[in-house]
Amino acid sequence: KTFLVEIGTEELPPKSLRTLAESFAANFIQQLDNANLEHGEVLWYASPRRLALKVLNLNDTQPDSQIVKRGPAVSAAFDANGNATKAAEGWARGCGITVDQAERIQTDKGEWLSYTQNQKGQPVVNLLCDMVKTALSKLPIPKPMRWAARQVEFIRPCHTVTMLYGDELVPGTILEIKSDRIIRGHRFMGEQEFTIDNADQYPEILEQRGKVIADYDKRKSIIKQQAEEEAAKLNGKADLTDNLLEEVSSLVEWPVVLTAKFEERFLEVPAESLVYTMKGDQKYFPVYDKQGKLLPNFIFVANIESKDPQVVISGNEKVVRPRLADAEFFYQTDLKQRLEDRLPRLETVLFQQQLGTVKDKAIRIESLSGFIADKIGADVEQAKRAGKLTKCDLVTNTVFEFPETQGIMGRYLALKDGESIEVATAIEEQYKPRFAGDELPSTAVSCSVSIAEKLDTLAGIFGIGQHPKGDKDPFALRRAAIGVLRIIVEKALPLDLVELANYATSLYGDKLNNKNIVDDIVNFMQGRFRAWYQEQGFAIDTIQAVLALNPTKPADFDARVKAVTHFRTLPEASSLAEANKRVSNILSKVEVTIPEQINAALLEAGAEGELAKKLAILTNKLSPYFSESRYQDALIELSSLKETVNAFFDSVMVMVDNEEIRLNRLALLKKLQNLFLKVADISLL
């Protein structure tokens, strides 16, 4: 039969409703599996005032089972005279048998006493209440609460518990509330309370009589579809980001999608401020036209079917108007002062106690942006100008009210002040990429400023020894490091981490006390390489083979990793990796200085001479490949050495008694190793 459990509560936290429901289902499935109960699909339901599960085709009885209880080893169960020891007798008593009734089992660790107990399966209705309790106790609830005079805790006060197995009421008490057939409907529509006769009636009976759509995904789908239809009536497109759609779906039990408007004069305000107000404060969906311009309309979701929807629409328009007026006031006030004139006010904003103010940071970013721009061929003066103005919008009224608009507001104000589009864009894009998969800065000037902004933070925080520890990273240094690496790699910028770290730290003067700061920054960023490239699917030993050379140019590192990855697809790769391991092992045991040059007069004809000849040819041929970072082409050429190297090891003894010949052969191997080390240490593959 079908099993139903519904927990009726006060309004649950909307941002965690889906997580709670999915966790409840996962926990309960685990309980069913632990009890060895056969069942069909497990469906979860969630609305602001309830969590529910429905288990289809649940067996009415737990299957019989056998429990094997292993006792002490036979050697410890009997004394020298063959009498049972106290350990054996105690174990037997616990099993309800005598020692002579015990079985014996043979394992690879010897012979043991054993007892197989047959356990009869229980009726499912006797098990369900405890299973629900356990599933609820494991929900991810960071701050449980108590209510009334009760001692139980849950995420919100609980009012009803319904547990049905088919048409049978499952007895039990959960959260100090007895299981009953009563279900509560919508607060203002339908029946406030009604009884349910059979588990199969859920959730349809709740929708018909209680005016509650318990199916979470159904509510979300209704909201999405109706919002798109409402936007289409305006020849526009609704901003239906999934996070907001999820939150709104968690706030209503009976969604009614309506469209409202606001005065067009508010469109003079930067759209981002209006959007943050509508989405963040009011949970409204903004609407854009086909060119991506904000329309003076918004879509919202009511939790009630009104006889006069216009009253509901007017009410929401009245609520949003003062909020938009605030945004307008902040922006108009901000326009009265130039962005550059705000720089002195940054002296009142602390970046970090030991590292000074945000103004100090802006001056450092100015210098660092110019340094980076010069290295990558960007406009140095534009980069320095943008760097100087990066943080000025932090002291605007708009950013103070809407922190998410930092950078964005800087762009608007910079353009109003007559700054170039390059400078304005760089001010906005200084924070990109903000998260994994986010887009990168769009121009060379923006790249310079974005790298400088992140690198200054890395240099400062590492400079005072506040390295990230475990999951504690208050200055988001890991994100900053990945951001710098992504820009350099994906834009193929010729930047060196050591050079960048040295210049960034020099701008702090005597404020830093970490003597190993440059090494710490470079090592930290190379550590990000390992995690980042593993996430992209590159083999860990490929990454380690490149890291062994300690490359400090991210774009160069990227070229090497991709070259080694391609090399591994060649049929010669495995053999050459083995040969490099052999060479590495031989050379690691040599304690004397190996000659730089090979003495041709000491070479034997055949495999040894052939290897020396090929190495000489490849050394000359590959020199331009390495200088142009054509590592993949270089490894393809080096793969031609396979037969020659194999022939050398098959027919030539390296460690001969004659010291002169031995050292000459070691020099030959060193030359072979060095050619591969121009790309990576493939002996690690």
Structural commentary:
This protein is of the alpha+beta class and 685 residues long. The protein folds into five domains: 146 residues, no CATH class; 55 residues, no CATH class; 120 residues, no CATH class; 189 residues, Orthogonal Bundle (Hypothetical protein af1432); 127 residues, Isoleucyl-tRNA Synthetase, Domain 1, CATH 1.10.730. The chain is 47% helix and 13% strand. The chain is built from 25 helices and 18 strands. Strands 2-3-1-7-8 form a five-stranded antiparallel β-sheet, covered by helices on one side. Strands 13-15-16-14 form a four-stranded antiparallel β-sheet, with helices on both faces. The protein has a three-stranded antiparallel β-sheet with strand order 4-6-5. Strand 17 and strand 18 form a beta hairpin. Helix 18 runs antiparallel to helix 19. The chain starts with a strand and ends in an 8-residue tail after the last helix.
Briefly summarize what is shown.
By secondary structure, this protein is an alpha+beta fold. The longest helix is centred in the middle third of the chain and has 26 residues, at 309-334.
Features of the shown structure:
685 residues; alpha+beta; 5 domains; 5-stranded antiparallel beta sheet; 25 helices; flat
Gap from first CA to last CA: 57 Å
Overall pLDDT? 90
Cα Rg: 36 Å
The oligomeric status of these chains comes to single chain
Number of helices: 25
Described by strand count, sense and barrel closure, the largest sheet is: 5 strands, antiparallel
Task: Provide the CATH topology of the largest domain.
Answer: Hypothetical protein af1432
Q: What sort of overall outline do the alpha carbons produce when their principal axes are compared?
A: flat
As laid out across the biggest beta sheet, the strand order is 2-3-1-7-8
List low-confidence stretches.
none
Helix content: 40-55%
Q: How much of the polypeptide forms β-strand, as a percent range?
A: 5-15%
Which CATH class of the largest domain? Mainly Alpha
Give the tally of structural domains: 5
Structural classification: alpha+beta
CATH architecture classification of the largest domain: Orthogonal Bundle
**What's the number of extended β-strand segments?**
18
